[in-house]
Automatic annotation (TrEMBL):
Organism: Xylanimonas oleitrophica
Main localization of the protein described in the UniProt heading: membrane
Protein name in the entry: ABC transporter ATP-binding protein
Family annotation (InterPro entries): AAA+_ATPase, ABC_transporter-like_ATP-bd, ABC_transporter-like_CS, ABC_transporter_ATP-binding, P-loop_NTPase
Record's subcellular location: Cell membrane
Segment forming the signal sequence: none
Record's keyword terms, sorted: Antibiotic resistance, ATP-binding, Cell membrane, Membrane, Nucleotide-binding, Translocase, Transport
SMART domains referenced in this protein's UniProt entry, alphabetically: AAA (SM00382)
Length: 323
C-alpha cells in the first residue's frame, strides 16, 4: 500500500512493517493507523499476520523493518512510559495462572493511578460466577473476559484486543461489544484483530483487510462494500452444490427471471462446489436459481440469501474465504 500522511492525532501509526521468521516475511510492508475515539479492525484469515502486527505495536516483538508508534512513542524503547497508557488483551489471555480471577484484576487495578471500579467491571463482564476460581481453571471464554477486564481496568488511551470475543458465548460477546462501544465513546483508540466479519461489521469504524502480511484494502465497512462494486440493495445468494456447474447458463437464467431488465448478476465458484451469486435477489430470482439447478439434477446442500458482507469483499479481493 502506498504510504499516506498520518491521520491527524493518530494514536497508532504503523509504517511499512516487516516481520520475518527465518526467511519468511509473515508481516510484509504493512501500514495502518488508528485514531482516538475509533475502533480500527484488522481483519484477515488465520495466519495473515494480525497477531504479529499487534504484538509489534505492544512492544512484544521487534520489527525487522518499518516503524511503529503508539501515542507518538516507540513501544519497545518507551515501554515504561506507555505501560500506564495502553491496555493489551492477548489472544491466549497472557494472565498469571495461579491466582484467583478477581484477585488478579484487583492487583492489576492497583497498579494504575485512576483505575475503573473493579466491582462494576466484574458485574458487566459477568466475572462474578468465577471470581474465586484460579485463572488456570477458567474456561477459554472466561479467561478472555478476564483478560479484557485487565486490559481496560487502568483506563488506557489505547487498547489492543486480539480476537476479543474468540470462544465466547453470544451473551458474553454482546457484553464485550458494549464495552468496546463505551470505550470508543470515551475517546479510547481501539485496535482489534478478528477474523469474524460480524464483529468487524458491528464494531469497526475503519477496517484494514490483511492478507499474507499486508493490507489489501482499508475503509469503513460501507466504503469497502461499495468499493467492491456493490450497488445498494444487492444481495448475495450462496449455495453449495456439485463442483463445476456451467455458470454462464445460470447468469442468463437469472437475467431472464428479472423481467427483461438485462443481466445484472455475477456468478462465481470461488471454491469447488461453493457458489456465490450477486444481484438483485427477489423471490423470482431464487426460484429461477433452484429451477436451473433442478434441471441439471444438481442437489443443493445449502442455500442462503443475504446482503453482501465483508466476507464477500474478501472473496472478491482474494478468491478465498476468510476462514
Ligand atoms: N514465533 C514464531 N515463529 C515462527 N513463525 C511464527 C511465529 N509466530 C507466528 N508465526 C507464523 O507467522 C504467521 C502469522 O501469524 P499470526 O499469528 O501473526 O497470524 P494471525 O493473522 O494472527 O492468525 P490467527 O488468526 O490464526 O491468529 C503464521 O504462519 C504463524 O505460523
Amino acid at each position: 500500500m502506498p504510504s499516506s500522511p498520518a491521520l491527524p492525532g493518530a494514536a497508532v501509526v504503523v509504517r511499512g512493517l516487516v516481520k520475518r521468521y527465518g526467511d519468511r516475511a509473515v508481516v510484509d510492508g504493512l501500514s495502518l493507523e488508528a485514531a482516538p475515539g475509533q475502533v480500527t479492525a484488522v481483519l484477515g484469515p488465520n495466519g495473515a499476520g494480525k497477531t504479529t502486527t499487534i504484538e509489534c505495536c505492544e512492544g512484544l516483538r521487534a520489527p525487522d523493518e518499518g516503524t511503529v508508534h503508539v501515542l507518538g512513542l516507540d513501544p519497545r524503547t518507551d515501554a515504561a512510559a506507555l505501560r500506564p497508557r495502553v491496555g493489551v488483551m492477548l489472544q491466549d489471555g497472557g494472565l498469571p495462572t495461579g491466582v484467583r480471577a478477581v484477585e488478579m484484576l484487583r492487583h492489576v487495578a492497583a497498579m494504575y493511578a485512576r483505575p475503573r471500579d473493579v466491582a462494576e467491571l466484574v458485574e458487566r463482564l459477568g466475572l462474578a460466577s468465577f471470581a474465586r476460581t484460579t485463572v488456570r481453571r477458567l474456561s477459554g471464554g472466561q479467561r478472555q473476559r478476564l483478560a479484557l477486564a485487565a486490559a481496560v481496568v487502568g483506563r488506557p488511551e489505547v487498547v489492543f484486543l486480539d480476537e476479543p470475543s474468540a470462544g465466547m458465548d453470544p451473551q458474553s460477546r454482546l457484553a464485550v461489544w458494549e464495552l468496546v462501544h463505551e470505550l470508543r465513546a470515551d475517546g479510547v483508540a481501539i485496535v482489534l484483530t478478528t477474523h469474524l466479519m460480524d464483529e468487524a461489521e458491528q464494531l469497526a469504524d475503519v477496517v484494514h483487510v490483511v492478507d499474507h502480511g499486508s493490507v489489501i484494502a482499508s475503509g469503513t465497512v460501507p466504503d469497502l462494500l461499495a468499493s467492491s462494486g456493490t450497488p445498494d440493495g444487492e444481495t448475495s445468494v450462496r449455495f453449495e452444490a456439485p463442483a463445476g456447474l456451467p455458470l454462464d447458463g445460470l447468469s442468463s437464467a437469472l437475467g431472464a427471471a428479472g423481467a427483461g431488465t438485462g443481466p445484472r448478476w455475477t456468478v462465481a465458484e470461488p471454491r469447488p462446489g461453493s457458489y456465490v451469486v450477486t444481484g438483485p435477489a427477489d423471490p423470482a430470482a431464487v426460484a429461477a436459481l433452484t429451477a436451473w439447478l433442478a434441471d441439471r439434477d444438481a442437489l443443493v446442500s445449502s442455500l442462503t440469501v443475504g446482503r453482501r458482507t465483508l466476507e464477500d469483499v474478501f472473496l472478491d479481493l482474494t478468491g478465498r474465504h476468510l476462514r
